[in-house]
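Q: You know discrete backbone vocabularies at least as well as I do. I have my own habits and do not want them to colour yours. No explanation is needed for now; the record alone will do.
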Amino acid sequence: MIDKNYIIPSVYQKMNERGFFNLETYLWMNDMEWMSIDKIKEYEYDDGKSKLIIPFAITGGGDKWVWVVNDEDKEYCIGLCERAESDGIYYAKNTEDAIFRHIIEYVSDSNFYLIKEEAKSYQISECELKIQLENWKNSFKGILNNDYLKIIDKLKELSLKHIRSQYGEWYALLTLEEQDELIDKYIKFDMIDDEFEWYID
């Protein structure tokens, strides 16, 4: 179980108050499946796992989104701990930034189709994407800062475009360059993409 002195970050507490972790009012995000606060507090650590790392969500593949406890900042940095790795990677300086970065990366990835007959099972249409963005904007009012909400709102005004890179071709609202510009401007911090210890000796 996690240390009783650790504080659940305020953003997560607000999400809990709005019922985002309940089955009936669950707030979906791509590959970030929330854990309830009760499950977080009752999390059982495997031998060797650092108790300064607190899982709060999982990916579809079973990797863990975590808070990296720092006594100087009760909002905690966010990391991603992959199952097969002993180290995690810093993703954002707090939960608010992690949510915003995740949305930016989602609209930049190959999650959307332009032609329905060519769609893959996980892809959605531009119309469905804009409904999802509106839902996020409304759901996160009073949780995310106004700059982030304004950008989410502006994303709704964009159309899917053909993206071509060394990784392949797909349709998205943002190019990888536009994605990186937003991350550099709003999300980047000293430890982003650095490693931290998940398992300790």
